[in-house]
Amino acid sequence: MESIALTKPQARKIILTAAGLAQKAQFGTGIEAVYRVIDHLGFVQLDTNYVVERAHHHVMAARVPDYQTEWLADLCEDGRIYEYFTSDAGYLPMCDFRFSLPVKKAFETHGKPLTKPEINLMKQILDRVEREGPLMVGDFENDRQEASSGWWDWRPAKVALERLYLNGDLMISRTKAFQKVYDLPLNLVPQETDFNMPTEEEYARFVIFRTLGALGIASVKEMAWRARRVKGNLIKKELEKMMQTGEIKIVVVDGLKGPFYMLPDQKVGLELSNEVFILSPFDILNVFRHRLKDFFNFDYQIECFVPAPKRLYGYFSLPVLAGEIFIARIDAKADRKQKVLIVHNIHFEPVDLVPVIIERFTQALKEFVQFNQCRDIVFKRSNNEIYLEAIRKGFLNK
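RESULT FIELD:
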């Protein structure tokens, strides 16, 4: 089988184009562009961290300049997207609904065996939702028998609701305050949706196509991650078949240990607009630390999961991309009461920035202030006072 040889710059351009970050508004504008992003990526990770605007909205705002946060809810209400799991929780296109069924089956059959009281509670809750309609955790009495030991120590009703959601008996919608509302699938999934369980081969092929479509270039490791909930999946076996039939191409990237793979219709020699994007830690471009290090020479880790004394850049540092180079990371927090975006730290990477890139970074920060419903910005510190001063001047020249 012939392989395609790529330089790292060529590979980066393919990866960024697949991620929807080759230029601003790559998918257009408006709510239809939001749907096109989700349909192209196949999955947009959801996160509840609210230090700055939540990750799923941040991902959209980076790609759709006129993005409105209510558009995701509108698309869910219209039955065009839904919330569920692939590797993590997120929004998926409804056209892929049948491929969530193996994941639901995995949650139902491979989880911890249920006790009789747990089974009875789940039946009671499902019966209530069927009779009364959509319900929230607060609609159930506090059935905790012992004091809470902290986060994730859910009371029985919450555990039961989540199990019913994961195994597919219930689905989730959201309130404006982002609280979960549990409902029956028949109330949220359009009637014409395909509910046929895919075969193991179909599921594996789906994951391979979706992963390569979103990542541009990927290894087996990334494909397996997307299918990690389904134990014993056939990713490797189907990948071999698809290489034999020419549906998948082997890629050799200069200086990197492969193998890597990509779709045969993927274009090489693409050009980028060199725009500046402030990205979410949970953006599809950033979720695989090894990829950032290998392809972009950017060693990134979200540090909200790191003990405070060991943090290098800040609690919730956001990668800043200019063209195909990561130029900085900013640790920011939105003070919504005062309507001020507080930038605790801008750490610039060891790259020389020409004035036009500083200008574009400043403009991206201005847009990020507005996106977070703030009116002003405060800079605390930076490792490069010259660049920071240029940005400050850019804000004075509004």
